[in-house]
Amino acid sequence: MGLKIAVAQISSESGAIGQNVERHLAAIEVAAQFNVSYLTFPELSLTGYEPELSLNLAMSVHDRQLQSLQVAAKKHGIFVVAGAPVATDTLPEIGSFIFAPDGSIRTYTKMHLHPGEEKYFSVGNRYELTPVRKHLIANAICADTNVADHVAGCVEKGAKIYISGAMITGNGYPKDTEILRNYARNYGIVVAMANQNSRSSSGLPCGKSAIWSRSGLLVSANESQSAIVVAESSSAGWSGGVIEI
């Protein structure tokens, strides 16, 4: 059996971390049933995309609100990447908490902010690549993918898979996904994007989470589905599918 990666398309309620954790756990259960090894959620999926609330919602790897996700990742032997503000000594960073099957938790924080985000967030300064079954997976968050140096830096470090948790609206979707498709084609890698499907303070994310290979679009959810979008490697290449939650 080849490697299975997936992106989760869910809705996130503003500031309702407990409720959002439950939605994450439901998606993890489905992903585990289908032997997914690496599951990524949208940008700030645990809190909703709410910059003005981020200082009060920021978390560290020791936050008790994350324990159930840590337990689920270990129980199912799956990497889980969930989004939340990461606490710092100054402004929080837009982060991904990476829960590993061995019970450890690492973070990746967004290295390239959208205009206006600098009012609420600090900038991350390091790549985070995860080895999974002989594949090296690079983590990204939304606007990271609009900066060509970010994916180039990940590929230089050996990444063969590049996965972004995002918050993309309908207006931005065509341009943003063209960039992702071109990364897959030009670098010969698999590129995946997890998008929300619910309203946030910045507008209405349009869903359509998707995965691309060198040959083009492998698979995409529709605008409103709550689902995991899966890609599986095999000797014949990559194939994809959508599984409802």
Please characterize this protein's 3D structure.
The chain has helices at residues 17-33, 54-57, 67-76, 148-156, 173-187; strands at 4-9, 38-40, 79-86, 93-99, 105-109, 129-132, 135-141, 161-166, 190-195, 210-213, 216-220, 227-234, 237-244. With 245 residues, it is α/β, with parallel strands linked by helices. A hairpin with a 2-residue loop joins strand 12 (227-234) and strand 13. Helix 1 (17-33) packs parallel to helix 3. The chain starts with a strand and ends with a strand. The model has no long low-confidence stretch (mean pLDDT 95).
Order of helices and strands: EHEHHEEEEEHEHEEEEE
Quick one: biggest sheet? 7 strands, mixed
**What global shape is seen?**
globular
What oligomeric state do the depicted chains represent?
A: single chain
Secondary structure tally, helices: 5
> Ranges with pLDDT <50 over ≥5 residues?
none
Give the proportion of residues in helices.
10-25%
Structural class: alpha/beta
Radius of gyration: 16 Å
Total E-strand runs: 13
Distance between the termini: 23 Å
Which descriptors apply to this entry?
13 strands; seven-stranded mixed sheet; 245 residues
Write the layout of secondary structure elements.
Blueprint: E1 4-9, H1 17-33, E2 38-40, H2 54-57, H3 67-76, E3 79-86, E4 93-99, E5 105-109, E6 129-132, E7 135-141, H4 148-156, E8 161-166, H5 173-187, E9 190-195, E10 210-213, E11 216-220, E12 227-234, E13 237-244
Parallel strand pairs: 1-2, 2-3, 7-8, 8-9
Antiparallel strand pairs: 1-12, 3-4, 4-5, 6-7, 9-10, 10-11, 12-13
Helix pairs in contact: 1-3
